[in-house]
Amino acid sequence: MMKKIGILFGKENSFPQAFIQRVNEKGVKDITAEAVSIDIVEQAKPTDYAVIIDRISQDVPFYRAYLKNAAITGTAVINNPFWWSADEKFFNNALAVNVGVPVPKTVILPSSFRPDDTDENSFRNLKLPMNWDKMFESIGFPAYMKPHSGGGWKSVYRVNDPEDLWAKHAETGQLVMMLQEEIQFKEYFRCYVLGTDNVHIMQYEPRNPHHLRYVIDGPEVDPAILDTVKKYCIRLCKALGYDFNTVEFAVRDGIPYAIDFCNPAPDADINSVGQANFDWIVENAANMAIEKAQAYKKGKMNLTWGTFVKDQITGKKTPLK
Q1: Which of 11, 268, 272, 313 is deepest in the core (most CB within 10 A)?
Q2: Cα(23)–Cα(32) distance, rounded to whole angstroms?
């Protein structure tokens, strides 16, 4: 039986085509890869794909609905569309604390503008005025303000004092924002994590222009820090259940702090990540997709679920490693 691997993508070009080509170059018996093709989407009707790698449904709700329907009928969707729909960055910080990974001190802020179809009565459970002084004392300034959900460096602000925060918060509309402690870092890493435990650590400089952020020949890093970064990557991605993710760490006083680790459709463009990192992600994503296709069981649920969800079902806590 031929098993098809599909990749669902949007504007990006380099990674999807290279991924398809690499899977097919490997010549694995009864495995083939192609761009996903969608026509009529009928409820509870299976797709032709054993595996789909999702690179775009975060921006296209129609695709997310398609992938959930595909998943419930057996397709191994990477990443799990049910968990991806439920996940967000503020919860991830709480989960990181729960699994023993350091994160910056963080609080969540009500949106500057009320959500549609609400008025002042919708917020009678919110204590006003909030204890802003206590919040600012805990987080400190300067700090970072960023959306509690969503990907990329969108609507991210560095705030210097309360007045600066109020002015910038007014620009965020109905977004729910996080206020986060600034980590003054010596080293910074962005890590690809595939299959929850295959880690590729990249030195990264988020203060540079986007196309210059991936450091080619950075200073030598203490191997103990790299070992800790790898351990924390695996711990986070196993808890979350993401098979395709990036995890970012800022290192302060030798301690890696997880800064951003909810990136289920991470940048994989050759023009930004560079040739070496691009080659790694193409090769290892191809291998992972082939393994998922080989393990595929028709008519069964073939998704990856994180230990956080599985622990709630079993009532047991997965040991930390």
Answers
A1: 268
A2: 7
Amino acid present at 271: N
Tens place of pLDDT for every residue, the chain, 321 residues? 899 999 999 999 999 999 999 999 999 999 999 999 999 999 999 999 999 999 999 999 999 999 999 999 999 999 999 999 999 999 999 999 999 999 999 999 999 999 999 999 999 999 989 999 999 999 999 999 999 997 667 889 999 999 999 999 999 999 999 999 999 999 999 999 999 999 999 999 888 887 788 887 778 899 999 999 999 999 999 999 999 999 999 999 999 999 999 999 999 999 999 999 999 999 999 999 999 999 999 989 999 999 999 998 888 888 887
Please state which CATH class domain 105-181 belongs to: alpha beta
3-85+287-304 and 105-181, same CATH topology: no
Domain 3-85+287-304 has CATH 3.40.630.30: no
